[in-house]
Amino acid sequence: MRASHMELLDQWRDTVVRDNQRTYVSKLSGKEFEMSLQKTCGDCHSNKAEFCDACHDYTAVQPYCWTCHLEPQEAP
Fold this sequence. Notes:
The chain is mainly alpha-helical. It has helices spanning 5-19, 37-44, 48-59, and strands spanning 23-25, 32-34.
């Protein structure tokens, strides 16, 4: 997932925006997921500094996710 997460997010974005399809069904497990960066991904990866920033800083990548999406906020 680490190596290909951007491809998945791009595919989800295109599917939601262009085809108005918001549900992804895993080919491996048959489990359904809502195609949502904030809801689905954020449910487990709410620590932006740990799950986003650390890898993006290491690879010197500047993602554009947060230009449209709300940044995850840490629970107090």
